[in-house]
Amino acid sequence: MKILIIGGTNFIGLHVVPHLCAIGHEVTLFHRGKTIAELPSNVHQILGDRTHLHEFKSKFKEISPEVVLDIISYTEHDALTLMNTFKGITQRVVAISSMDVYRAYDVILGRESEVVPVPLTEDSPVRQKFYPFEDMPNRPLNTPVNYEKILVEQVVMSDSDLPGTIVRLPMVYGPNDPRHRLYSYLQRMDDNRPAIVLEESLARWRGSYGYVENVAYAIALAVCDQRAKGRIYHVADTEVFTEAKRITRVGKVAGWQGEVISVSRDKLPAEWKLTVNTEQHWFVDSTRIRQELGYKEIVSLEKALQRTIDWERIHPPEEPEELAEPWLLDYGTEDGILAKLV
């Protein structure tokens, strides 16, 4: 097939492209050209900004892709422009979405209080309030204030003339992760901390993660398989660990000799408090994509962690203090707690 990808030169896209090329598809990327990426030699490129997507319509007609994969639709306007541009040009659109569409996410953020049952399925209730990041002073990856994947999904899946597919992603980690999801813990391990202290509700909290190469493989399946038409899929690891066990697994691969210790809230400083509601777990059931498209992980957990750790050690964030998890204690406070536990 001929496949057009909007984006594709960063974190997840860098792994999707090789999968599609290896199968033998003809791949064209539409991107701004601001990221230097190592791409297969047979990949075509069109340079442009997605805010001017409609201006390239004649060029897209020349290519005539059977499927368009949009990795970077963040707003309702993005999705409307996408569908209006490619209607009559392509046969299907695949859009990347997120687990943050679910009502459970608002519970985690404290915008709703009633805990939602888990695991979440593709039919679990979505948020009733739009724009989850609008009140955040530091929005993740500088996403626009009107970021809303619910609206993106509605637009992509409601066009009777142009079928859509949605792939909802978990918390994705791996080499080139712009959020450096493992770094805050790995730094403590490499500093030879004897223990990492977690408040007990956080220690038992469970969320869905996915290694970038596995997630990219799932996306490639959704792009290539016509059975994905009109479907919404979760991608996530089958194993869902508590946060304490997840960090312990990272430590084992990293060669850390310390341990993760869970403590009750009354043992933490009076001014300390969680910024999220950890009574709401946030993990999904990924059975649908496994049964319908034959998805399974292509990289084991141990290899995934090792590759991520190796990359994080070579590429630490430029300003690591901005990425530190807000629920982690400073070393002095942590040492004081540990001393009382002896």
Overall description:
The structure is a single chain. The chain has 342 residues and is α/β, with parallel strands linked by helices. It has a single domain, classed as NAD(P)-binding Rossmann-like Domain (Rossmann fold), CATH 3.40.50. The protein has 12 helices and 11 strands. The strands form 3 sheets. The protein has a 7-stranded parallel β-sheet, with helices on both faces. Helix 3 links the parallel strand 4 and strand 5. It is globular. The termini are far apart. The model has no long low-confidence stretch (mean pLDDT 94).
Would you spell out the secondary-structure blueprint of this structure?
Blueprint: E1 2-6, H1 13-23, E2 26-31, E3 44-47, H2 57-63, E4 67-70, H3 76-86, E5 92-98, H4 103-109, H5 149-157, E6 164-169, E7 171-173, H6 183-190, E8 195-199, H7 200-203, E9 209-211, H8 212-224, E10 232-234, H9 243-254, E11 259-263, H10 287-293, H11 301-314, H12 331-341
Parallel strand pairs: 1-2, 1-4, 2-3, 4-5, 5-6, 6-10, 7-9, 8-11
Helix pairs in contact: 1-8, 3-5, 6-9, 9-11
Features:
12 helices, alpha/beta, 342 residues, Rossmann fold, 7-stranded parallel beta sheet
Give a concise summary.
This protein has 342 residues and is an alpha/beta fold. The chain is 33% helix and 15% strand. The model has no long low-confidence stretch (mean pLDDT 94).
CATH topology: the name is Rossmann fold
> How far from one another are the termini?
63 Å
Radius of gyration: 21 Å
> What summary fits the major beta sheet?
7 strands, parallel
Sequence of secondary-structure elements:
EHEEHEHEHHEEHEHEHEHEHHH
What is the count of β-strands?
11
Principal-axes shape call: globular
